Protein 1
Amino acid sequence: MSLKLATTVDEVREAVGRARQAGRKVGFVPTMGALHAGHLSLIRAARVDCSFVVVSLFVNPTQFALGEDYQKYPRTLDADVEACRREKVDLVFAPAADVMYTGEPLTTVHVAKLTDVLCGPHRPGHFDGVTTVVAKLFNIVQPDAAYFGRKDAQQAVVIKQMTAELFFPVEIVVCPTVREDDGLAMSSRNAHLSSDQRAQAASIYAALEAAAERVARGERNVATLVEQITADLEAAGRCKIDYVSIVDPETLQAVDRVTGPALVAVAVRIGSTRLIDNLLVDAGSVASNNGGAQPTGEAL
Ligand code: AMP
């Protein structure tokens, strides 16, 4: 079947309704477009599980705080639709902002506590924007399963919580982080890096891996691990570290010692580009989040 491009809620409902009537399982991959191999891995995971795959391309204004990069966020609609066609996506939903936000928005979906940590304090309103738009998209698409990347580990935990608490009948599938050859997590924002900054950005994954190795060699003290990651990041060049944190992978609350699975998460600004990454480590064994690796953090 050929790809259908929808821009309105009615078009999506009609196409998904027909697929459902035909007994097809509906898989959904929400994105902000500028598709890269990380997004494609989610689409492929959906393709394996589901016989009707929907991808949304929507740069959601409400998840950008004032002064963030909403205006300069890359927009590559034609190339994205072509990539979806190659991946045999059934339906692309690329709405204009006034389709998703009709009139003055009075309703917000807020997940507490899980959004007070890591990126939350650095991006006021960001997670409210994410959960509100994902709730809207879930209601529009009504998928059986939705696919998210572990690269945005906090987002995945927050979405899982929202889905469970609001009884959305949607299975949340979290897929491994896809990386460049030097380990940098693929991100639409990498396009903003100069070549020097791009080289420096590889230090993020290197610092996370070094921490995982220290854990594997028996280091359990979180303060020591955080200090070493910070030193590694700073040694690589000028950057502004928003946070280096080691948290429980399910509750996202800080831990003092690594006693089981733990999420090592960082957010770093190189120039004006903010990059995030994380690695799941385990006191028993090192859990790699590299692309292609088996997902080990099922809790995520
Ligand atoms: P975005 O377009 O950045 O909002 O991302 C859309 C989805 O793709 C989210 O679920 C992200 O976590 C996921 N994603 C982004 N980058 C990667 C990556 N490098 N590997 C795996 N998933 C990713």
Protein 2
Amino acid sequence: MSGSTFPGATPDPEAWWRGAAIYQVYLRSFADGNGDGIGDLAGLRARLPYLSDLGIGAIWLNPWYPSPMADGGYDVADYRDIEPSFGTLAEAEEFIAEAHALGIKTITDIVPNHGSDQQKWFMRALEAGPGSPERERFLFREGRGAGGELPPNDWQSIFGGPAWTRVADGQWYLHLFAPEQPDFNWANPEVVEEFHDVLRFWFDRGVDGIRIDSAALLVKDMDGEGEEAYTDLDGVHDIYRGWRRVAEEYDDRILIGEVWLPDQERFALYLRPDEMHTAFNFDFLACAWDAAALRRSIEETLATHIPLGAPPTWVLSNHDVTRPVTKYGRADTSFDHADRKHGMPSDPALGERRARAAALLAMALPGGLYVYQGEELGLPEVEDLPDELRQDPIWVRSGHTDPGRDGCRVPLPWSGDEPPFGFGAGQPWLPQPPEWKALTAEVQAADPASMFTLYRTGLRLRRELLGDGTLAWLEVGEGVLAFRRESGLICVVNLGAEPVSLPEHESILLASGPMEGDRLPSDTAVWLRVI
Ligand code: TEU
Ligand code: CA
């Protein structure tokens, strides 16, 4: 990295995570090993050769802990064990070792903002009653109104409805998400200690990194109003300084923040040398398919990261957002949690074309890359799931106005002509569209023009020629993004309406779609070799 460095930043340019391609496994939808319709560790272990072949450097797993699944596992009942329907702790340790043997690191998801109402601590807090030290681990308060029948304040849950639920003895507890997810009290040193211990528990089992869920929400100003009262309060940084000290007790372990903030300067504060190593770049994920907007997002990202010595990350999708091929096929190609544009018409051919170009863009940028399972298969968002099968708490809590995130969580199609497409022997927990027979991993691995082949080839070239570092912009024309990397690779993405001529080059290494003679068509990206 060039440029001035933040005081105290001594980045190791060779660190494994700086340029890693990290594959996100949403376990219950990845592969089912025992035929109960729910993905599990046995299924994942059986498919490790697929991930090794795809060419990724690390796997991030969504929460795999015992959970009543009120929010797909983000309601954790025990931070030191494995959800029985996913497998056992011994299997998790075997998985970590098998992945290591293939040169693949493991990243687990820790949820510090809230637990589950079925967690021991919370059940003890209910039993112990008002004023007890057990209640001090959570955010219990008396209600307002003569009989305390009104919630302590007007905060709304991020999933819809009030952020407070009343218990039998009349007190209320705070939950920024579902009522089954009571928020912890981070002003209590017991909570701080508990999570340090949980981190050590997983680092001791060989986990290489921790993805920190809802990382900006932990500190609350109970007298404040609205989102500002619990989003990005200065006190959160002390929490992550403590976590970094724990990570530093080990070699090479990293912290990755899920930090959704509109302000890139505030976002970058989480990446100071004594806090997290990296964080997801949601600005890029949410950005519309527009050359000027993407260039602004990329430049801002680089400008905020380089002085800190932290590698940027490039994310096109995850388990909370609309699948890229659907998003990019719409008239409005941006993403916003507040309006996920469910049902807005999407042109599948256009969406796929752009998603392919976006993949080559994201892979060519300096820093780390995230690939959410199914992105490499070009799976669309499933928007027509039967309402009665929807499981995302957003669906119920929004009063059935927002269908939520199930559409990007449908179990993967592996092989065969009809559901369950090799996902497992049983019926998958969410139904797969019959059209997915054209999108199975089996079909795509054999097709040189498939999305899978594009990802596999791109990831291989990326390992050799790309990853972390810097870029130099090239001015090729309006509506075109073009930059050169240190290795001599040039990436050109045409977001304009007309085909464009390419800068001088020796050969074309990879293209997201067919060329028009020697010109790069609209919504197409190309990687060029220069001398
Ligand atoms: O998400 C945190 C978060 O605030 C959003 O991504 C959220 O999903 C969105 O605003 C809803 O529209 C994390 C996890 O990624 C998500 O799956 C969990 O549901 C959430 O935390 C609660 O643990
Ligand atoms: Ca299973």
